[in-house]
Amino acid sequence: MRVLFLLFISLFISKISLCQESFSVKEILGHEIGADFSRHSQVTEFFKKLQQEYPNNSRIESYGVSNEGRELLTMFLGSESIINNLNQIKADHKNHADAEKIPIVWLSYNVHGNESSGSEAAMETALSLLQDKIEWLDNVLVIIDPCLNPDGRDRYVNFFKQYASKSNNPNSLSLEHQEPWPGGRLNHYLFDLNRDWAWLTQIESVYRIKLYNQWLPHLHVDFHEQGINENYYFPPAAEPYHEIITDWQREFQELIGKNHADYFDSNDWLYFSDEIFDLLYPSYGDTYPMFNGAIGMTYEQAGSGRAGSGVILNNGDTLTLRDRIDHHVTTGLSTIEVAITHRKRLIEEFKDFSQSQAYKYESYILSGEEYKIQALIEFLDLHEIETASAQENLNIKAWSYHSQQKVSYKTKKSDVVVSTNQLKGPLVKVLFEPQTFITDSLTYDITAWSLPYAYGIDAFASENLIPTTEFQAGEPKEINGVKENTYAYVCKWSSMESARFLERILLNNVAIRFAKKSFEIDGKFYGMGSLIILVGDNEDLNIYEIIKNAARNLIVDIAVYNSGHVEKGNDFGSSSFELISKSNIGLLVGDYFSPTNVGEIWHFFENDLEINFDMLHIGNIAEVIDIVDYDILMLPEGELSEEFRELLEKWVSQGGKLIIFGEAIAHFSDVLGISGRNLDMDENGDSFDSDERDEVSHMITGAIYECKIDYSNPLAFGYKNYYTLRQNQEVYKLKGKGSVFELNENAQQIAGFVGSMVSNEQSNALIAGVGSLDKGQIIYLIDNPLFRCFWQSGKLMVANALYFVND
């Protein structure tokens, strides 16, 4: 028997050896891990081959494709029993079953494309688990996403392979260390996917969150890289921590940090913790998991796009790709080790997370225009946040987001309720909280994001649970059709749905007008910007069919009238109804422009409006403007040469419309009569002290302010109120007319952090407006209304600038 047993062991070991020998990393990748960078297709092929080699301990799941068609996949690793029972493990976890015994650890890599050691480390970590740490997999389910941003990664890897020297030149001045604009950090639309976990504006984020919410892991790690001289960062994180974070989540950060430190100490590797990276903003790869009950963590390795395959540091050492991989693999395995050690408590604390929270507000009542409410509901659905309809005619006391005080409110049938009494209750609290509680002013990102302000809806926060009924979706609006002697179709201008409808109409070469003044017809009020399609303007078109198709799947209010006479206001033949022309639009891109702002405009054009436009590289712009008659140019945030600024001024003066974002306004402040006070400076004009505490007192870090509005200006069409997300302390003021959106007198933020040195300096600060230059116009959007494309209420402002601001 003993001989048979030894023979069995011998055969088993031989089988493992043969298995390992038959899996050739070099054969799959063309190089050993760390010897070169792998393109995304090679990474996905590696994981598929690995799964084929270890079918009992791994499973691949493809969960979507990137904008450029690259596969998004995850690998599940566990014992044979775990892999064969994934559905049961998932169900036990989601149901908080007593039978749940297996902790779920999710490791995410390369959310920033040029932080390129990530995918390499993901491959080596998976290989190590299946070959060297196989016994660990009896007690844990590991999910590895090797690349969250494959488009950005391949942009970087292709650049590096194109310019890298055969000797792997470590001199940071060499071209292989100098990525061209826009770099590989961002995705196809030049969005930072690590700021998109909550907002889900990008397709990669939408696909990922769907899979993430199926599993809601106990622990999630986001692997990053930072500057080449920054060493390695791991938790515990810095303050501020959001108040929703539990003592256990804090404690585990300490446990994980100590374990990592032991490994780094034994290898004489440098590291730091408890600095820079906080846990407040909800849309990161560490905070979003935290607010869903997990232990969320960020790990930062020195490197990124400047590192290449090796780079000389300030201290004279050379940081290699192999070094970067080793560090990430070490912390990845250390994370799994700690999760196994504390698996029982990880599971129990996760179960208690939602139930242990105390909420000031139990319910949020959403009221307002149907499209805006529906858009917010669809967003919440992506997060699996439950909504319901309010019971009608309930008299409640609640805090009003608009009036900033407790009010009496009677619920309406159309009101929607979002309650904290659900699995995603903590996330509801974070996304809807009227005012973020900040324990420390030194924070890494914006400090306000409340969804009612972002979506521009009325909302009320109740300290009690509001009785609800099953959610009733609104009925699709039908156009009344063709009346005998139909004269006009009229569409209210109230949201981006109206803008989408308008763009579809223009694509069909329909003559369409907009109202420069409000009017009433058949007892119905139409505000400025309302769209009028006159049958007489379009006699050669089947106008009803075009309108019906253009309105399909949109929430728009369209009515049919058989006369051009109105009860109040001007008749449809008046000059106050102006024809809308289809414009040739150019988006300026290239060096010195903010890639993320370029991406926001690009994404808005293609995904919100589906409008045709050209990207114009500034290196060719002089020639382009001479050849092609562009009606509108979009100028993102960035720096301009004096020569280029003069070229743009000349183009505007000849009749062009220039739409400027953010601090780019500074280049045209003189011609627009705008003055700016730089609040970065003290009274003597000297830069303020470099001490971080002093610096932050001069900053605004994403605070929400209410605006006063000139409703007569076309830039404000469709708005009843507007809340701006302010991120710059610079105060611009207009000497003459043209301000459309500005802050109130003695303006104070509604939410978010504003430094003590600038809080009383924001009176009448210019937010957006319109200026003239000879025959042309300059529209300036100083507080970026397209910020990360999650500030939904700002999008209509950009549509107004495109279609209505003409003189």
Can you walk me through this structure?
- By secondary structure, this protein is an alpha+beta fold.
- The protein is built from 23 helices and 38 strands.
- It folds into 4 domains: 27-353, 3-Layer(aba) Sandwich (Aminopeptidase); 363-469, no CATH class; 488-579, no CATH class; 585-803, Rossmann fold.
- The strands form 8 sheets. Strands 27, 28, 29, 30, 32, 33, 35, 36, 37 and 38 form a 10-stranded mixed beta sheet that branches. Strands 1-2-4-3-5-10-6-8 form an 8-stranded mixed beta sheet.
- β11 (310-312) and β12 form a beta hairpin.
What is the topology?
Layout: H1 2-22, H2 25-29, H3 40-53, E1 58-65, E2 71-77, H4 80-84, H5 86-94, E3 104-109, H6 117-131, E4 141-145, H7 150-163, H8 203-215, E5 219-226, E6 232-233, E7 238-241, H9 247-266, E8 271-272, E9 278-279, H10 287-290, E10 295-302, E11 310-312, E12 318-320, H11 321-341, H12 343-353, E13 363-367, H13 370-382, E14 388-390, E15 395-400, E16 405-410, E17 416-419, H14 425-432, H15 451-455, E18 458-462, E19 468-469, E20 488-491, H16 496-507, E21 513-515, E22 519-521, E23 524-526, E24 531-534, H17 543-550, E25 558-561, E26 577-579, E27 585-589, H18 595-609, E28 614-617, H19 621-627, E29 632-635, H20 642-653, E30 657-661, H21 669-672, E31 674-677, H22 692-696, E32 700-709, E33 723-726, E34 731-734, E35 739-743, E36 751-754, E37 766-773, E38 776-781, H23 795-803
Parallel strand pairs: 3-4, 3-5, 5-10, 6-8, 7-9, 27-28, 27-29, 29-30, 30-38
Antiparallel strand pairs: 1-2, 2-4, 6-10, 11-12, 13-17, 13-18, 14-17, 14-19, 15-16, 15-18, 20-24, 20-25, 21-24, 21-26, 22-23, 31-34, 32-33, 32-35, 32-36, 35-37, 37-38
